Structure formats: C-alpha cells, structure tokens
Amino acid sequence: MPSPMSAVARACPACRILRGVIAITFIAMTSPSTAGEWRYGCRGVLPSGDAPVVVFSRSSLVILPKAWVNGPLLEAVNDDLLISKFEAIDINSGLDKEMVFKREGNPDEKLTLTEISSKTIADVYRPPGSLPRSQQTTKYRKVFRWVSNGIHEGPYDIKMDCINYELSAPQR
Questions:
Q1: Which of 67, 80, 130, 139 is a plausible cystine mate for 121, CB 3.0–4.6 Å?
Q2: Dihedral of the CA atoms 85, 146, 110, 101 (nearest 10)?
Q3: Tens digit of pLDDT for each residue in 75-108?
Q4: Nearest Cα to 162, choosing from 37, 39, 36?
Q5: Position 8 confidence tier, pLDDT thresholds 50, 70, 90
Q6: Of the candidates 148, 141, 25, 21, which has an alpha carbon nearest to the alpha carbon of residue 84?
Q7: Can you tell me the distance from the alpha carbon of 75 to that of 65, in angstroms, rounded to the nearest whole number?
C-alpha cells in the first residue's frame, strides 16, 4: 500500500523537485571531496594613532577599527569609523616574504607587507588515518614591514599572529 506522502508527492510537481534537491544535497554531502584545501592568514594591530586591527588571508586584507573588535558597542556602530579592504595581487603567493595588496575601488593605492621575522609557535601534522587525507597546521608569530602609498602610509612594523592550514586531497 503506498504511503499518503508518496501520493502527495506524485500530485505536487514542486514536491518532486524538492525531493530531487534533497537527494542531490545528500549525495553531495556524502561524496568525498576531491580537492585539497589551503588557507592562511594573519591578524595584528597596526601601531598607528588609532590602532586599527589588520586581518589578511589568501585573497584580501581588511583594516577594521579596534572599537569593532573589543571596544564599547556604541563606538562600534559609529558610521565615521573607517573600514578598508584590499585585494591580493597574487592569491597563490602564500605567506611569501613580500605580499602586495591593492585597495578595492582604487587600484593605484597599494600596500606592501614585507616579512622581517618569523617564529614558528606550533606545527602539527596529522597523517592520513581512517580518513584518506593528511592535515598540516602551522602557527607563526611574524613581524611585517607595512608600507602603503595611501591609508596608514607608515612605514610601520606590525606584529601578527599567523596560521597556515593545508588539507591534502584524498589519497587513494
């Protein structure tokens, strides 16, 4: 005897489409990913007068007002606070000795971070076990020389906490 739900699903085209979408979602969630993953980035405070927080990753660098991170809520909702976003010129450069970013909306404005020093804080490698992937997580404390031809010109030396995370492609 067919269930009442299947009768509803046969009668309703939208229900059939929804059932198909749910099935595809489950298949996508259970199938192993074929690509590896690589993420890196750093976070620090720029030693300028207003001491904004700087966060960068593989593709972008963002300057956030310190009030947004750990200040009072009233200061964080001030529209006069400045937020700047920069795009990486080479997103595959990794944590290179020199990284160049261009300001979003103003490509003539560039920001260069040059590594002055680096200390490895933690380095953890997890070999493939029951899962067919290996995992490498390295944490650093780095000092970069900040030079910009626009906002927060500097030069400044900025201390940053950094991470490099790599997940291998499945090994078969």
A1: 139
A2: -60
A3: 555 554 557 888 888 877 667 888 899 988 888 8
A4: 39
A5: very low
A6: 148
A7: 9
